[in-house]
Specification:
Helix content is 57%, strand content 0%. The chain is mostly helical. Helix 1 runs antiparallel to helix 2 and helix 2 packs across helix 3.
Length: 223
């Protein structure tokens, strides 16, 4: 007896429905009477809906079942569907290729928006507002540089980077920027603070409670 292996059978276009549903669709293709074929197609749709009984009464789910019926027939089934018949070209349409920007970021630790903001500020005519904005950006640059390098940069480095990113298009108040102080506070992790607390506890214990050796010496002196 010849064994019927799955690799010898036809391809399952939607494996989640199983081979029995695909065989039902194959039988629909053999029915010559159109009215009978339409009737049997609706019966197959009902069987397919029984696989997910909670969703079979919704309109979108019924539309999806009819689309799956045509897909399992390899778009060869000719029946009257209550919805627009899908096409192979419509389902195999390739998505539009996304255009990714190839912009080079000169200072990655600052981010690209810092450079964009500095270039936009070149057209600012109000020098007072410009100084406030540059001061805020400089503080932000110091904090991001600390997060990246774990050390605060010199104000001269910040001034130099601002000139580079703005392409020398901004009049800087270098005196004010040289006196700039960062509002960024370093937060120590619990692992860094824990040994210090232990050391303080031992020191307090040594001050308040003498060691056993000192106790014995005190007792001998009293005797």
């Amino acid at each position: 007896m010849e064994k019927n292996y799955n690799y010898k059978r036809r391809k399952l276009y939607l494996p989640e429905y199983g081979r029995h549903i695909h065989e039902m669709v194959d039988q629909l293709l053999l029915i010559e009477d159109r009215e009978e074929r339409n009737s049997q197609a609706r019966a197959v749709i009902a069987v397919m809906g029984n696989l997910n009984p909670l969703l079979r009464d919704t309109a979108d789910f019924t539309h999806k079942l009819w689309d799956h019926l045509f897909i399992m027939s390899d778009f060869q089934l000719d029946v009257d569907s209550p919805y627009e018949r899908p096409t192979r070209e419509g389902l195999m349409m390739k998505p539009r290729r996304l255009e990714y920007s190839q912009e080079r970021i000169a200072f990655k630790h600052y981010g690209k928006y810092v450079a964009h903001t500095l270039k936009a500020l070149r057209d600012e005519n109000n020098q007072e507002a410009l100084d406030v904005a540059i001061g805020s950006i400089a503080r932000y640059m110091r904090s991001k540089s600390f997060e990246y390098n774990q050390e605060h940069p010199n104000n001269e480095v910040i001034i130099k980077d601002i000139k580079i990113m703005s392409e020398d298009g901004i009049k800087l108040d270098e005196v004010a920027l040289n006196n700039l102080r960062s509002d960024y506070k370093q937060h120590l992790s619990p692992r860094q603070t824990k040994p210090q607390q232990k050391g303080n506890a031992k020191q307090m214990q040594g001050k308040n409670h003498p060691s056993p050796k000192n106790r014995n010496q005190n007792k001998a002196a009293k005797r």
